[in-house]
Amino acid sequence: MILCGILIAAGILGALIPFSGIVGLDNHREIKGPTEAEATTSSNSTTTPTRKEYTLIAQDAELEIAPGKVVKTWTFNGTMPGPPLIFTEGDNVTVKFINKTPIPHTVHMHGNHDAVNDGVHHQIMPNETYLYNITAGPAGALMYHCHAYPTSLHIRMGMYGAMIVYPKDNPLPPAREFVMVLSEYDDDNIMKFETQYYPINGYLDQYVQNPIQVNRDELVRLYVINIGTTIPYQFHLHSTIFKAYPSGLLSNEPIDVQTAPVGPGDATLIEAKWKYPGTYLFHSHGFLEERGNMGQIVVTENINEDTTSNQAVPGNETTSTSMFDWQYELQKKLQKSNNNQLQ
Ligand SMILES: [Cu+2]
Question: Ligand 1 centroid vs 56 CA: distance in angstroms?
Answer without folding.
Answer: 12
